[in-house]
Amino acid sequence: MLSEAKFNILKQISGEFSRDETIWASGYLAGLAGAPVGIASSPQVPHSQSETSRKITLAYGTETGNSKKLATELAGIIKKKGIQVKLADLSQYKPKDLIKEEFFFVIISTQGEGEPPILAKKFYDHIHENELILNHLKFGVLALGDSSYPQFCKTGEDIDSRFEILGAERIIPLKKCDIDYEEEARHWIEHVFEVTAKASSKPQLSSASKVATGRKKYQGKVSGIINLNDITSDKETYHIEIETDESISYQPGDALGILPFNPRNVVDEIISLTGIDPEKQIETPKVTASADELLYKHLNISYLLKTTVAHYAQMTGHHIPETRLGLLDLLRIYPIKNAEQFEEIITILTYQAPRLYSISSSPEAHGDTEIHITVAKSEYYIDDQKQNGVCSGFLSQFREGDHLEFYIQQAKHFKLPQPDKDMIMIGPGTGIAPFRSFLWERDATGAEGRNWLFFGDRNFISDFLYQSEIQDFLKTETLTHLDVAFSRDTTQKIYVQHKLEQKAQEVFQWLEAGASLYLCGTKDPMSKDVEETLLNIIQNQGKRNKEEARIYLEEMELNGRYAKDVY
Ligand SMILES: Cc1cc2nc3c(=O)[nH]c(=O)nc-3n(C[C@H](O)[C@H](O)[C@H](O)COP(=O)(O)OP(=O)(O)OC[C@H]3O[C@@H](n4cnc5c(N)ncnc54)[C@H](O)[C@@H]3O)c2cc1C
Ligand SMILES: Cc1cc2nc3c(=O)[nH]c(=O)nc-3n(C[C@H](O)[C@H](O)[C@H](O)COP(=O)(O)O)c2cc1C
User: Fold this and answer.
1) Model pTM?
2) 127 vs 45, 119, 236, 417, CA distance in Å?
3) Where is the Flavodoxin-like domain (predicted)?
4) DSSP string, 312-361
5) What is the helix, strand, coil percentage profile of the chain, to 5?
6) Tens digit of pLDDT for each residue in 324-380?
7) Pick from 283, 294, 290, 220: nearest CA to 257
8) I need a labelling partner for 267 at 20 to 30 A (CA). Which of 7, 55, 92, 255 fits?
């Protein structure tokens, strides 16, 4: 810290600085102090306004590819208008380069429970954990999200407000977009074009504009539910068939979204433990309903966010270490004073998040009033007690004739290729779901392209999901190639990536001949291991170096020939 006298001198001198001089001086001082470049430092002066006013960076942070696809399209639009645009993937972007930017626009989605996409987390953490000086930066954020989630567009909001705190100038208000973002995004880029063309330095109001959308809800009735695993398996995976009265509009590759209800016994225990009147009407920002209905149908009570637990600690006066846990456990370990206090606690709970399930039926083969999903009952342990995930537990208890509400989540990136094109599908476990849909659709439409499936699970006998259908597809040659890996049938564990490796030459030949590549199933570690193997195959078979292999796969992704749905 400076003494008051020195501070006054600094204030007096810096008061006469121009904006560029201020930036230069801050870099100079930090340089003297030996601070790392980019963190409150950098002796590098940004280019003058006249040199760079028409050069912008469009950065994206993505998980399933929407932001990347959008950023690429929008960059094309403004390039056509004669503005230089640098497209930057936040997973590769060096935050210290922010000091060199003048116009910096971000397109970023929100994932998990209000978290940044995994690959953009490093950037997100860096700007939040470091006191960067960004006074020279003009910025704008387009946030992609889904208003069904409690933390709608949270990552975009966070970046927008953090840039402002770091001194950057918001030249276009935060735009929060819902699932049908395309048109709004095109308006946004027009706006970006206008403000950068004018190189306006007037700050804009930060009022976030939200695109309001309604999502079509379908009322369904369960027409069949079976556990696809054998009784000897330690897993349960449910094939669920749902029928509707009205026709459902979806395409293979899309997912079904559902808002689960919480376990009835847990809600009853919470009510009895807190003494709250279950009929008491309580107002929350989005829903006003009885305490019982809120706890059962609308609020997340199973695995509270750290921020909710911290809020609970503040309200109840307990000292609670940073943690996540279920509401019932929280109430047991850190009791509340009385039912009135619990009424207040209810208002700080977040809403239940929808869960997505890849649709495993095909509209062509199964008709438009029937839809199938493939649900693995998720299990975890608390104090040696087996617990089930909220939604998979909820769905596994459905019986024929039970009713449920759902919606369709379009997967814009995960679509069948042209009928004459070949495709390679990698889908162990429930990753098989969209590929069952693809195969049924190709079978029903008589598509000529060749189809190669890589499937894997634990044991051949008990875990070969949809085995008889897959064998039928082989017989009818809808499925031209099949490779399976059952990890627990052999002493050395064999996974789908090992099967890919064994067929490396043929896999690469397919890719070179224009085949599309799909990957679906668990994110960690499966999708990472498979992608690593794919890169090795491209490198070794295609005689490319690591970077060239990455670009090869990235180009396939941009051209819509490589798509992943991993979770
Ligand atoms: C595009 C997409 C497609 C998908 N397709 C499929 C599909 O076809 N089939 C499929 O089965 N799934 C699919 N999923 C995953 C699915 O959406 C759900 O995430 C999955 O069913 C788990 O949800 P859940 O409510 O059962 O578990 P949750 O209740 O959300 O729990 C998930 C995990 O959180 C942890 N957890 C929860 N509560 C606690 C607690 N109190 N203490 C400690 N840890 C806790 C546990 O590790 C638990 O396993 C897909 C996801 C996406 C994004
Ligand atoms: C598992 C999962 C969690 C999500 N969580 C949120 C969320 O908390 N808030 C939100 O606004 N959107 C959420 N979304 C929606 C995504 O932000 C939205 O689908 C976006 O278009 C994805 O863009 P991307 O492909 O660039 O990652 C979630 C989506 C998935 C699949």
Assistant:
1) 0.79
2) 20, 14, 42, 39
3) 56-193
4) HHHHHT----S----HHHHHHHS--S-HHHHHHHHTTSPBPPPEEEEB-S
5) 40, 20, 40
6) 999 999 999 999 999 999 999 999 999 999 999 999 999 999 999 999 999 999 999
7) 220
8) 255
pLDDT reading at 278 higher than 50: yes
From 63, 87, 111, mutation site for ligand 2 pocket: most ligand atoms within 8 A of C-beta: 111
DSSP tag of 118? G
Cβ of 567 closer than 6 Å to ligand 1, yes or no, is: yes
* High-pLDDT (> 90) share of the chain, %: 79
Rounded CA gap, 432 and 41, in Å?
50
More confident position, 177 or 133: 177
- Above 70 in pLDDT, residue 121? yes
Would you say how long the chain is, in residues? 567
Q: What are phi and psi of 407, to 5 degrees?
A: -135, 170
Contact in structure between 235 and 293 (CB atoms under 8 Å): no
Are the CB atoms for 372 and 359 separated by under 8 Å?
yes
Round to whole Å and give the CA distance between 297 and 294: 6
Q: If you take atom 9 of ligand 1, which residue's CA is the nearest one?
A: 375
**Minimal-distance CA residue to ligand 1 atom 28:** 389
**Beta pairing partners, 281:** 290
Measured CA distances, 167 to 175, 367, 563 (Å): 20, 56, 38
Cβ of residue 119 lying under 6 Å from some atom of ligand 1: no
What is the model's pLDDT at position 214? 64
Q: What is the pLDDT of residue 30?
A: 42
Q: Pick the range with the lowest mean pLDDT from 35-44, 86-95, 374-383, 418-427.
A: 35-44
Q: Which domains does the chain have, with CATH numbers?
A: 18-210 (3.40.50.360), 217-260+353-409 (2.40.30.10), 264-346 (1.20.990.10), 423-566 (3.40.50.80)
Please give the distance, rounded to the nearest whole angstrom, from the Cα atom of residue 378 to the centre of ligand 1: 6
Q: Residue 26: is its pLDDT beyond 80?
A: no
Supply 156's token pair. Answer: 């975009």
DSSP letters for 58-88: EEEE-SSSHHHHHHHHHHHHHHHTT-EEEEE
**Location of structure tokens 């398996």:** 233
Helix (H, G, I), strand (E, B) or coil at 482: strand
110 lines ligand 1 (CB under 6 A): no
Contact 455, 484 (CB under 8 A): yes
* d(CA 254, ligand 2 centre) in Å: 14
For the chain, the farthest-separated pair of C-alpha atoms sits apart, in whole angstroms, at 87
Specify the pLDDT at position 6. 56
Confidence of residue 15 (pLDDT cuts 50, 70, 90): low
Instruction: Name 304's Cβ contacts closer than 8 Å, sequence gap at least 6.
Output: 312, 324, 325, 326, 327, 330, 349, 350
